[in-house]
Amino acid sequence: EALELELIKSNKMAEIGRNVEGIVHNLNSPLNSILGYSQLILRNNPEIKDIDKILDAGKMAAHIVKGLLDRVKKSNASMIHPVNINEVVEQELELCRHNLFYKHFVISEKELQPRIPSVMANFGDMSLAIANILNNAFDAMKDSLNKTLHVQTEQKGDYVLLTITDSGIGIPKANLKKIFEVNFSTKNIKGETRYGLGLAITKQIIEKYNGTIEVSSKVGAFSTFTISLPVLK
Hints:
Elements (H helix, E strand, L loop, with lengths): L1 H43 L5 H27 L4 E3 L1 H12 L3 H6 L1 E6 L6 E3 L1 H19 L6 E9 L2 E8 L21 E2 L2 E2 L3 H12 L3 E7 L3 E9 L3
Parallel strand pairs: 2-4
Antiparallel strand pairs: 1-3, 4-5, 5-9, 6-7, 8-9
Helix pairs in contact: 1-2, 2-5, 3-5, 5-6
């Protein structure tokens, strides 16, 4: 029953997602007008310093719109093709900047190996898998004094490794083997029941492309998720 409810919710979100591209695309025209007229006003009235604030806000909105459009286009592409994991990580972290908790409280650290080899996958699948882990990390750090997210990519032999570590509440040893099971969740935020599909879906996605996902954790200290995917040859 819990799985059915979560799938209904997922279908509703998918329907919203299908409408996002059109909605976001329609924002481009008024945004361009705001930016254009603001620049015109500033050119004719350079003494009005507040126009700079309008331009900065407009440029930020345009950047967000472009990011959303890029993600929708890549996620809609159902083909399996070479994917650069660094590119997916950068995109997901950029979108996380619009998460107020991440923006104001989380210290983000990145160690992305330059010129890392590509993997064969669907961009949308990789995006969803990484987003699920990041969202779990944010939930885990809500009550931590130290809120640090560390993301690292590297090549080891014939595999690309993505490691995501949060300084959250950690996972009890007894639960480490259960967290990838459907319906298992340690979350219960403000009475909200979580059905634990996120990590189960992530594991299915990674295994679909002949990869693995592992977790290590210490209660009250950290959790580390390591994704390993075969290098494109």
